[in-house]
Task: inverse folding
């Protein structure tokens, strides 16, 4: 299998440490011919990017990673190949912006109650369009409340922990419908991370177009289960590194990828 495109990464528009143009350069360095950028709940990275990708000999596929909830559990959905000007999609992105504003404030209030005050300005000044828990974790390290981001997640910010807040619920089903309405493909992200068999069974009944079968640093023997499942369901197979740069230093750009044939099916 020749690596053709890495379909999952984050930029400085969400919780990655590289700009979109730095991602293009990484794709060229890795010898890839295509890519998608999948920031959390925003498509801001795509502004003027297609031309700049083409100039570097790269084919760009539109992408996004939406945070959704199904049966009370967090589920990430990747959207690919959608129309960037789709109104329902842009409205959903606006809802996410509001959702994150309220959720981040709720998390900061909880941290203050545990004597770890952080002001909204302190996380906004990081200058990212979409602010999430990784930014709050970094602020906690900077303030000396925790040793490292992992400790911040483990003790306070991970799902269900002391200072976590789910925020407004945006459903998995609605998100799938909006991606499809925008002409895109809705993909169940990183099933490898779901430790909940009943939830997986429910998700498999939803109208996804495909599944992220090859993911991050997972070896072939861990991906096989998802590839076999996709073949049975005749779902599309996608793959990507989920590169976040220095925010997840253990994962290199291009660690997982798709072939040319898999890439072409997503347009
Ligand atoms: P949010 O978008 O605010 O819900 O934050 C989700 C992001 O936080 C994920 O995409 C990861 O980058 C990061 N994250 C989630 N759980 C952990 C964890 N246990 N340790 C470190 N980072 C995490
Ligand atoms: Zn992330
Ligand atoms: Fe994710
Ligand atoms: Fe991701």
Result:
């Amino acid at each position: 299998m020749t690596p053709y495109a890495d379909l999952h990464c984050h930029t400085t528009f969400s919780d990655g440490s590289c700009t979109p143009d730095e991602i293009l350069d990484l794709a060229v360095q890795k010898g890839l011919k295509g890519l998608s950028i999948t920031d959390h709940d925003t498509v801001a990275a795509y502004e003027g990017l297609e031309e700049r990708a083409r100039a570097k000999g790269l084919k760009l596929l539109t992408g996004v990673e939406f945070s959704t909830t199904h049966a009370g559990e967090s589920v990430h959905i990747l959207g690919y190949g959608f129309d960037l000007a789709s109104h329902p999609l842009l409205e959903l992105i606006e809802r996410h912006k509001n959702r994150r504003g309220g959720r981040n404030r709720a998390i900061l209030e909880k941290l203050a109650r545990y004597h770890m005050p952080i002001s909204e300005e302190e996380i906004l000044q990081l200058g990212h369009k979409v602010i999430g828990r990784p930014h709050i974790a970094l602020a906690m390290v900077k303030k000396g409340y925790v040793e490292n981001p992992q400790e911040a997640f483990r003790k306070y910010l991970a799902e269900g922990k002391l200072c976590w807040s789910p925020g407004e619920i945006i459903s998995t089903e609605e998100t799938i419908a909006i991606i499809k309405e925008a002409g895109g493909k809705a993909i169940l992200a990183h099933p490898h991370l779901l430790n909940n068999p009943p939830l997986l069974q429910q998700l498999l009944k939803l109208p996804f177009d495909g599944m992220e079968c090859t993911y991050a640093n997972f070896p072939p023997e861990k991906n096989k289960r998802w590839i076999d499942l996709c073949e049975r369901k005749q779902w599309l197979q996608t793959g990507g590194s989920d590169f976040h740069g220095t925010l997840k230093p253990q994962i290199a750009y291009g660690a997982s990828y798709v072939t040319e044939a898999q890439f072409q099916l997503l347009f």
The CA atoms of residues 92 and 178 lie 8 Å apart. The radius of gyration is 18 Å.
